[in-house]
């Protein structure tokens, strides 16, 4: 597996098939019960059509506040479309989709969650429609599906984070390998791959990285890291100083830092595992045109600028990264064989659990 800088010229095709529903990658596990959220429109009466607006349903793992902001902006620009959202962790979304398929048809129009392997599995099963009118020409290749069943909407790397009030600069880890140093014993926290889809994906990436592998996972376990349920509690534990160093998705660190928490990010020298939180249209959707307009908004300049305001890295090079964050071309990312990583996920989770017990 190689490490490379994040540019279009070095893009690789993401093709990964199948995995267990509960462990498919997700990026935002909810901390509350599943919710239905509907935004409001700021459209004028002149903009609005005399006909009743079309309603689309989006299944997503996006945090509620963030998806509500996106939907409000979308409906203001598209007053003829009303968006309803079912929000849950990726595992729960997969379970819901499976249950709906078993009873007849998938009830949502858009899936916006997880990573490319998740969407490859749905595309392979025939659950996604080819995107006919989505303009992804300005989206970086790493976030595009060459068969055009989905498109990435954010770059979400997993990073090392630390409490700036507790950890001295001289003691900062700079790599995944550094986290096995005995000086970090009882100071680390990370999400549980048996619960968090993103953590399960990371476990498999690390297990299949020649420079790390099972030996690294076992050495990490010797430092007795705290295993939090998901990325949200992990970031909170770091910010509170209970465990001042941890492994977490980067946008949560920026969210907490912006709110005044003493927390900062280190992009590991070996590169960061990352997901793209794709969006696609279900083949069963009866509102494909409206659903594609929604996806076009997500990847538009306006949609990507909103994503950056929400602390995400964009999927367009003509949209700047969040303030204080390296440019896309400066962030080293891990580039595993995603087919291998997906197939080995269950085994990687078991290795991780055994190492941490």
TrEMBL record:
This is ABC transporter substrate-binding protein. It comes from the Bacteria. GO terms for molecular function: metal ion binding. The keyword Manganese does not apply. Residues 1-24 form the signal peptide. InterPro entries: Ferric-bd (IPR026045). Fe cation binds at residue 251. It holds the Pfam family SBP_bac_6. Keywords: Iron, Metal-binding, Signal. The keyword Ribosomal protein does not apply.
